[in-house]
Design goal:
By secondary structure, the protein is mostly beta strands. Helix content is 0%, strand content 54%. The chain has strands at residues 3-7, 10-12, 18-25, 33-39, 46-51, 57-59, 67-72, 77-82, 91-99, 102-105, 109-113. The chain is globular.
């Protein structure tokens, strides 16, 4: 069974940090492009960051310099280190894995940045 399970979300004050994890199981392996997306209330889902099998990364302009995406292929796990968090980073964060025409999504984890 293919699964993507996110963890690490929560409530944090502005300027704080969180580390999200996405554990992949089933047929998802190191050849998949992995990514983080987020969706704030009333807004469309947007790309946060992606990482390829060769560890090439891509970030949304809004998170460049603050967020870092990484993956541990031995553990089949992807991470998102989020620093200097802002209230506008508040959203449900989703893990994504894709290869060719196949795509999988996690169930999402809530990140709330508020004082």
């Amino acid at each position: 069974q293919v699964q993507l399970v996110e963890s690490g979300g929560g409530l944090v004050q502005p300027g704080g940090s969180l580390r999200l994890s996405c554990a992949a199981s089933g047929s998802i392996n190191r050849f998949y492009v992995m990514g983080w997306y987020r969706q704030a209330p009333g807004k469309q889902r947007e790309l946060v960051a992606t990482i390829t099998s060769g560890d090439s990364t891509n970030y949304a302009d809004s998170v460049k310099g603050r967020f870092t995406i990484s993956r541990d292929n031995a553990k089949n796990t992807m991470y998102l280190q989020m620093n200097s968090l802002k209230p506008e980073d508040t959203a449900v964060y989703y893990c994504n894995a894709r290869r060719g025409g196949t795509e999988y999504w996690g169930q999402g984890t809530q990140v709330t940045v508020s004082s």
